[in-house]
Amino acid sequence: MNILVTGGAGFIGSNFIIYMLGKYKDVSITNLDALTYAGNLNNLESIKNNPNYSFVKGDICDAELVDRIFSENNIQQIVHFAAESHVDRSIVEPDIFVKSNILGTQVLLDIAKKHWKIEPDDKYSKDYKADVKFVHVSTDEVYGSLGPEGLFTEEMNLSPNSPYSASKASSDLLVYAYYKTFGLPVNITRCSNNYGPYQFPEKLIPLMINNALKGKSLPVYGDGMQVRDWLYVEDHCSAIDTVRLKGVDGEVYNIGGNNEKANIEIVKLIINQLGKSEDLITYVKDRPGHDRRYAIDNTKITTTLGWSPAHSFDEGMARTINWYLDNMDWVNEIVSGDYQKYYNEMYG
Ligand code: NAD
Ligand code: TYD
Known about the structure:
The chain is an alpha/beta fold. It has a single domain, classed as NAD(P)-binding Rossmann-like Domain (Rossmann fold). The protein has twelve helices and 13 strands. The protein has a seven-stranded parallel beta sheet, sandwiched between helices. Helix 4 (94-115) packs parallel to helix 5 (163-182).
């Protein structure tokens, strides 16, 4: 099986590649990543010499390059992670979110459709394309914000509130349109907030760990009572693999582990685990348009595909904090910008 992973130098993509190469000996992975500020080849140090792995530096918007990768590697499946992923950046710089997240996805859909020879009237005779699959990795943020009760289900209307989530919702609609119009075998996954090794230290959990370790203030937006539903990254990887193998074409699968926590709870937990003082907490101006609560109903993927998370929140957080403690060099290279010097030397 030849799989194109896009965005494989980012947080979840790199965890996914390591997970897949550890699990399968007969899977070959081509990683296409533009190495934006969020892409870090240090994440893939442990597998970089695996004969079933290759890296291509490039943009998913580059149709010629994507076309060549398909031809040269006989790509049968895509797991599409590449995206601008940080809500705060999308408030400052929405245009790049539209470009990478929407236009980039459309390029991948078109090239997959071309190489997999999908025609509009094929959709009822799928024999020759039994193995091909386009897995679009999306987010629960496309559903918008919940009140104090209720959960996101796959049937809910999309109601995104940030430029980031609006761009992801747009890409979801395009992916679904390629299924409906052309019969492209797609799945859309919508996962809750991830945490774990290799998460860029601009996101809540690694930012708080890094700042607490350095005795810096911990910026909590607004009242800190916003709720997110946290999933350990390896569980997201196993869910995507399950969808890749068993997902019914055209279906959306929510992914989550029933771990709702208020932001302030997470910050205090990190402080306590690291033996630091709560005096580091600083309440700052709220994020504009800040979604109040996300929470996933994972009934569909657990009951129809048999997936369930393997890590409890306590175990996942303990692993994550230990990972950051053991890998402060990884964090410090990012904070100092040195990781980008490494790319520049390697790839110009
Ligand atoms: P990330 O920002 O850590 O990584 C994104 C990767 O994509 C980077 O390596 C970057 O270099 C690459 N990239 C960006 N634009 C590109 C382009 N135009 N061409 C090629 N590569 C490009 O993001 P992440 O947290 O790993 O998220 C991966 C995916 O999962 C995203 O699609 C995101 O929407 C989705 N998701 C993330 C979370 C989360 O909690 N982090 C939760 C649910 C879904
Ligand atoms: P984040 O990790 O950016 O993920 P998302 O916005 O995609 O959910 O933020 C998680 C939550 O933490 C969100 O409610 C915003 C909040 N937050 C802070 O309070 N302070 C911070 O410095 C950051 C980065 C996030």
